[in-house]
Design a protein that fits this description.
Blueprint: H1 3-15, E1 23-29, E2 36-42, E3 48-54, E4 58-64, E5 69-74, E6 81-85, E7 91-95, E8 101-109, E9 115-122, E10 127-134, E11 140-149, E12 151-158, E13 161-166, E14 181-186, E15 192-196, E16 205-212, E17 218-224, E18 235-238, E19 244-246, H2 251-256, E20 263-266, E21 272-277, E22 282-287, E23 293-298, E24 302-307, E25 313-318, E26 322-329, E27 333-336, E28 342-343, E29 347-354
Antiparallel strand pairs: 1-2, 1-29, 2-3, 4-5, 5-6, 6-7, 8-9, 9-10, 10-11, 12-13, 13-14, 14-15, 16-17, 17-18, 18-19, 20-21, 21-22, 22-23, 24-25, 25-26, 26-27, 26-28
């Protein structure tokens, strides 16, 4: 190849817009007997787009595709978060928690991309805070109470309102009642707009992971601190008026979940809900329209769940390195795509997220 042709091709490659990933995942790697951590972006086909090495374990990785940026949030108790370029994974700014606080693993970008909202806990009492960062500088812009203790996942209930799962767990080895809640807060002031607290029959449940339905209701996956004594509901639908509905589960499936939901997600059409249980090694799907149970699929140590490329599509990930696309068929239930099952020499961590422009 002549030098002119080489330079022309190189210029074309540099001018070509980098591929925007379809999903973002946190990962652990024990290659060579040494544990390392990273965040990884993959395409719809499962091809790795980029890998950002980390000196700490991440929990969730989220995107603001309109502004081509993403955030990597440290796993609880996280001491660091990172803002990166979405197309390349290049690190842009490091974020640090409020004094005396740690990151709790989740965050959301504001609608205009100017701010990043994070959940943080303070001290042994796990006092909850929502801490807001200026994306351009990485500085803390504002903070307010999460109206509970040990806040975990948060999302936009509408353009001005945050929904937050306050996990309420101080001691994971205790079966004492916990003070968990699902709250709706004014994103500008932190004012409490709504709250769901479960009754005493369900006071061992920790409301942690959430997803939003098109009608504004929130799907909430829980973890039962005392699952050995009974089958308590594990996935709820709730709204800010305090109405709560538990999603139905066949008893045999319910027992297999072992009181633990790791992630909840809604497909791109908003018609289906998926919840995963790493303890039970399976994912469960319901109709978002009427809440009826549809089907389950086995995948050992599965926790990550996110919408896929189209209606009825989800992607699942597991700590054993599996990535499994599934499709929900109205008649057949869950249809796995085994030809697309990818087994990587990596340990996919708790969550994966869908990138949509």
């Amino acid at each position: 190849m002549s030098i002119d042709r080489f330079l022309k091709r190189r210029a074309q490659a540099l001018d070509h817009r980098a591929e925007i990933p379809a999903h973002l995942l946190a990962v652990g790697d024990n290659a060579g007997g040494k544990a390392t951590f990273a965040a990884i972006a993959v395409s719809d086909s499962g091809r790795q787009v980029w890998r950002q090495a980390l000196g700490w374990r991440a929990h969730d990785v989220i995107a603001d595709p309109a502004r081509e940026i993403c955030a990597i949030i440290g796993r609880k108790p996280g001491h660091e978060a990172l803002l990166c370029d979405l197309a390349s994974g290049e690190a842009l700014r490091r974020l640090h928690p409020l004094p005396g606080c740690t990151f709790d693993g989740h965050a959301v970008f504001s609608g205009d991309g100017a701010n990043l909202y994070t959940t943080q806990s303070q001290g042994k009492a796990q006092i909850g805070h929502v801490v807001i960062y200026d994306v351009a500088s990485g500085a803390i812009a504002h903070s307010f109470s999460s109206q509970g203790i040990e806040p975990h996942e948060l999302l936009w209930a509408d353009a001005k309102t945050l929904a937050i799962g306050n996990g309420g767990i101080l001691d994971r080895n205790s079966t004492d009642p916990i003070t968990s809640s699902l709250v709706w807060l004014d994103a500008a002031t932190g004012d409490l707009l709504g709250r769901v607290v479960l009754d005493e029959d369900n006071e061992t449940l920790s409301l942690r992971h959430i997803a939003r339905l098109g009608d504004g209701r929130v799907v909430c996956g829980v973890q039962d601190q005392d699952f050995a004594t009974g089958l308590r509901p594990l996935v709820f639908l709730a709204d800010s008026a305090g109405r709560v509905t538990a999603l139905d589960l066949p008893a045999a499936v319910h027992r297999r979940l072992m009181g633990y939901i790791g992630s909840v997600a809604v497909d791109p059409s908003g018609a289906y809900i998926c919840a995963t249980s790493p303890r039970g090694g399976l994912a469960v799907v319901w109709s978002a329209i009427d809440g009826h149970y549809i089907d389950t699929i086995d995948l050992p140590d599965t926790c990550g769940a996110a919408g896929g490329p189209g209606a009825g599509d989800f992607l699942l990930s597991s700590g054993h390195g599996a990535r499994l696309p599934i499709h929900i068929d109205p008649v057949e239930g869950i249809v796995a795509l085994p030809e697309a099952l990818r087994l990587d020499p990596l340990q996919w961590d708790n969550h994966l997220s869908l990138v949509r422009g």
